[in-house]
Amino acid sequence: MQSLAINAALLIIDMQQGMNRPKLGRRNNPDAEVQIQRLLTAWRQSDRPVVHIRHMSRSPDSVFWPGQPGCEFQPALQPLAHEHVTEKNVPDAFVASGLERWLHARGIRQLVIAGVITNNSVEATARSGGNLGFAVTVVSDACYTFDQTDLSGRLWPAEDVHALSLSNLAMDYAAVMETDEILVHC
Question: In what residue span(s) does the Isochorismatase-like domain sit (predicted)?
Fold first, then answer.
């Protein structure tokens, strides 16, 4: 990262109470929420824009089904009144949400992404952001994922799924950095 623009937006993806449900399985990076809180504190102190992205599922068995506690933001990561909240129904936060328009209207060209799930909503949003011409950075220690079984039935540890997803992003779509590297620029 060359420098952090004064209007670089922090996108916090899907940090909702539903992410703590045991049915999602074993996860990696147990300190991700601490790192997200550190980023959020720095963004608030520097008066940079924060965007909280909330997933509202179309599937009744989802932990993000509307009207259920799982849809609510985690208490430590609650948006402040002046912070933007974007709702989405698919993994990519740019699809049918107005996010791109909101960012362009404010002249925001640099995005720092944290949240979940690394290989789902984080990756989908970072890919679109990169394709749309934003300078995207994904904060590797401020994201996490879960163990995943592939189509042949092999179980992949969350650590491997996370690492491969970040590697995919680093090829063409985003810079990948840790929280400490980002905070040096705040």
Answer: 8-180
CA dist., res. 127 & res. 27, Å (int): 22
Q: What is the dihedral of CA 95, 97, 102, 104, to 10 degrees?
A: 10
The H-assigned helical ranges of 21-156 are 32-45, 99-105, 123-131
Q: How many residues does the chain have?
A: 186
Segment 46-80, tens digit of pLDDT: 999 999 999 998 888 888 888 889 999 999 999 99
Q: Where are the domains of the chain?
A: 9-183
Q: What is the CATH number of domain 9-183?
A: 3.40.50.850
pTM: 0.96
